[in-house]
Design brief:
Number of helices: 10
CATH topology of the largest domain: Rossmann fold
CATH superfamily of the largest domain: HUPs
Largest sheet: 3 strands, antiparallel
Number of strands: 11
Helix content: 40-55%
CATH class of the largest domain: Alpha Beta
Shape: globular
CATH architecture of the largest domain: 3-Layer(aba) Sandwich
Low-confidence stretches: none
Radius of gyration: 24 Å
Structural class: alpha/beta
Length: about 280
């Protein structure tokens, strides 16, 4: 018997795509379950063996939970910003918008061939304006906000300007990167530039001088998990500790709000535990 697996797989994959077999609709009568893989970086080489190693396991689990009666959300996407996309564009001499689109198409074709049960209607691309507009929206909201410790809430920075003009910094319990003491008269006598420099210390998203992992060859700052034994994971280039002006996020004062938010989440036990561990780690001096 001649088993033409290539034709059979192609036919069924097209069948699933045409009928949107794995499209997920909200169903309040079923318990929810969310299975999220780590989005791949769409480099030019395509998938490597480590991708399906994890994706197959999570896909099996997603199918298992569906059979148990859960309303399973199992999406896929592409972490298309960052060093992998940038370095590939540099190596090939092409614009990253072009290479990233080509690479995503290659990844999608390979993922489809494996037969995963992804809901592609919920695909995420971090380079898509429809996606990153929300990170920009969140940043702008944080930049234009300060955190009141007494009320345990973020408030518009414009209100803080009014408070400073009336009473200075006296009696205010506010989160800030550098403690400041000044009177209303001193504040009102300051130039616009001086006032903005002071306000920067109170913004939730603010500019600050911090020690970073600087890689001259890559021309960027690297996260701790992108460095091993003094070298960049990508490329093996020397990394040095350097003080640089960076955008920072004042998350510590917001821990109570984060804890409250975690407690309100339904399900997602492991995700809640992971985020709770992260909050504890940040609290360590």
């Amino acid at each position: 018997m001649d088993y033409n697996f290539g034709e059979i797989e192609k036919r069924w994959q097209q069948y699933w795509a045409d009928r949107q077999t794995y499209r997920v609709t909200e169903d309040a009568t079923k318990p929810k379950y969310y299975v999220l893989d780590m989005f791949p970086y769409p480099s030019g080489a395509g998938l490597h063996v480590g991708h399906p190693l994890g994706y197959i396991a999570s896909d099996i689990f997603s199918r298992f939970k569906r059979l148990q009666g859960y309303n399973v959300l199992h999406p896929m996407g592409y972490d298309a910003y960052g060093l992998p996309a940038e370095q590939y564009a540099i190596q090939t001499g092409q614009h990253p918008a072009v290479t990233t689109e080509q690479n995503i198409a290659r990844y999608r074709k390979q993922l489809d061939k494996i037969g995963f049960s992804y809901d592609w209607s919920r695909e995420v691309r971090t380079c898509d304006p429809a996606y990153y507009k929300w990170t920009q929206w969140a940043f702008i909201r944080m930049f234009h906000s300060y955190y009141c410790n007494q009320a345990q809430q973020a408030r518009p920075i414009a209100g803080l300007v009014e408070l400073f003009s009336q009473q200075g910094s006296a009696g205010l319990d506010l989160a800030c990167s550098v403690p400041m003491n000044f009177t209303a008269a001193e504040w009102n006598a300051m130039s616009e530039k001086e006032q903005q420099e002071i306000l920067m210390n109170y913004r939730i998203a603010y500019l600050g001088d911090t020690m970073v992992n600087w890689c001259p060859q890559l021309g960027t700052v690297l996260a701790n998990d992108e460095v091993s034994e003094g070298l960049s994971i990508r490329g093996g280039y020397p990394v040095e500790q350097k003080k640089r002006r960076q955008w920072c996020f004042g998350s510590r004062p917001m821990h109570p709000a984060c804890w409250r938010g975690l407690r309100r989440l339904n399900g997602a036990t492991r995700s809640r535990r992971h985020n709770a561990t992260g909050l504890v780690a940040v609290r360590v001096p």
